[in-house]
């Protein structure tokens, strides 16, 4: 039986990126716990055709490949940097090129990063409604990380690490953890 696929998408162009680091951390933990095959992308991986595309058919093969991976994933981790209280426009444009039925009932972990606590509700006021429109299953715990939660582009704070653990556990409602994988991880 083929492993289930987890895809992470970080809505950032920056490399290195705290947003990418957060999505990757969640992806690694989920893959370890549930045995997912995982891939994480950022907007660099989508490529330059995104900014020129009015329709999905206008994307180049690289960008189409990322969207195909997103819509065919068994579970998604979506991460966004916070700009002026919301997600970046090109990240939203990427999501706009996905047909709502393609994400229907898909479990999604929503994450975001920002400079401080002032942006923490972005996950609730921006990302959750966005994926609610797609009728996706956003997991109850949303994860937000601020500057103080990272050291050298790695998750370094205990509260953020604990929150990541909580949301990864919530995936168990969709994908029972493989006891053999859990035993090997310990």
From TrEMBL:
EC number(s) per entry: 1.5.1.38
Sorted UniProt keywords: Flavoprotein, FMN, Oxidoreductase, Plasmid
Ubl conjugation as UniProt keyword: no
A Pfam family per the record: FMN_red
Main EC class the enzyme belongs to: oxidoreductase
Superkingdom of the source species: Bacteria
Signal peptide positions on this chain: none
All residue ranges annotated as the NADPH-dependent FMN reductase-like domain in the record: 5-144
The UniProt record lists the keyword Repressor: no
Molecular function in Gene Ontology: FMN reductase (NADPH) activity
Family: Belongs to the SsuE family.
Protein name: FMN reductase (NADPH) 4
Species assigned in the record: Rhizobium gallicum bv. gallicum R602sp
UniProt lineage: Bacteria, Pseudomonadati, Pseudomonadota, Alphaproteobacteria, Hyphomicrobiales
């Amino acid at each position: 039986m083929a492993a289930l696929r987890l895809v992470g998408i970080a809505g950032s162009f920056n490399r290195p990126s705290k947003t990418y680091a957060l999505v990757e951390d969640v992806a690694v933990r989920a893959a370890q716990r549930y045995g997912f095959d995982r891939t994480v992308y950022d907007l660099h991986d989508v490529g330059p055709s995104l900014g020129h595309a009015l329709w999905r058919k206008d994307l180049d093969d690289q960008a189409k490949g990322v969207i195909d991976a997103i819509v065919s994933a068994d579970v998604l981790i979506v991460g966004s940097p916070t700009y002026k209280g919301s997600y970046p426009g090109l990240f939203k444009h990427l999501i706009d090129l996905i047909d709502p039925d393609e994400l229907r009932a898909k479990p999604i972990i929503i994450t975001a990063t920002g400079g401080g606590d002032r942006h923490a509700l972005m996950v609730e006021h921006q990302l959750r409604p966005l994926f609610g429109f797609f009728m996706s299953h956003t997991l109850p715990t949303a994860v937000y990380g601020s500057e103080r939660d990272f050291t050298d582009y790695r998750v370094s704070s205990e509260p953020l690490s604990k929150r990541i653990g909580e949301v990864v556990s919530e995936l168990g409602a969709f994908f029972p953890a493989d006891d053999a994988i859990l035993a090997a991880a310990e």
